[in-house]
Structure formats: C-alpha cells, structure tokens
Amino acid sequence: MRDEVLAILAQAPLFRPRMPRTGQPFSVRMSNCGPLGWVSDESGYRYQRMHPETGRPWPPMPKRLMDAWATLAPEAPVPEACLINFYDAKAKMGLHQDRDEQELSAPVVSLSLGCSASFRLGGRKRNDRTRAFLLNSGDALVLGGPARLAFHGVDRILSGSSAFLPQGGRINLTLRRVTAAP
Asked: Mind listing the pLDDT tens digit for each residue in 127-145?
C-alpha cells in the first residue's frame, strides 16, 4: 500500500489546506484520490474534482483501497473520495465531524499507515465525553451508523513508532461516499 500511496502523491502532491474565513493553515498536509477530493480554504470546506494547486484531476483510487471498502463497508455505495492526510511529528487534528457529504448513511472508512496516533473519539455533540486510544499502522476504523457523525480527532503522533514511511510520519486514508447514492 505504501508504494501505491507514494505514487498517488507523486501525481497529486501534498498541499497545506487553510481554515475557512481565517486562512490559518492546517498542521497536516493533504491530498486525495478518486473522482472527488476534499479541500479547505478561506471560502470553505468542499469536494472538488481537481487538485487545488496543480489543477489536474485526482488520481484514481487503487484497487486495494476499493477492496478494503468492500470488505469493511460491504453494504455501502462505492466511495468517491479518499482523503490522504499526512501527519509529521507535530501535526494534529482538532475534534470535528465528517459532515460535508450528502450521503451520511454511508460510513467513513479510515486506514492508518506509519507512525501511531493518539486518536480521540466522542459522541455526536461537541461536548460529549471523549476517549483516546492508539491507532497503529495497519489499523482500520469504520465510523458508521450512529457513530457516523461522532466527533473525532488526532491528539498527537508518536514519532518514531514506525519505519513504514521512509520520511517518517503517519498517513491516514479516509474513504467516503460523497454524493447521494442512486
């Protein structure tokens, strides 16, 4: 999987998204594959068909990702986007919900590669109690059903916990169905 992801990143390089309104940069860098890609900038969060810096379409999703979706979400319509988040040793992701998709009945499937992360999971309200646990390289997490809109985030990366990526760090692959299924 590492070589497939690195090949995608050669076609669709990592970029640093920005927060809506403030323009503050994220601590993670991102890319995408599949027909649609998730982006964020001063004008908001959205899915689009083109890389925001190169203007080229996102590379197709590798068969291995499609197979993982079929295994982990067999009843769901096919995914249309795979967000690729790259976390270096200092990156994190605040508590958020994945709610920019029209098809909220389809789960979000998350695959971890590289260094372990302290992952935080809560309820459907921002102030619900949360718990943290480690996600290690090779772990899969499915947020579906009532957990589909659970608040979640990454508290920190355990630098040096994996040699999976030559440059270190962690890659999270998040597969999603975006548009309403026919």
From this structure: 999 999 999 999 999 999 9
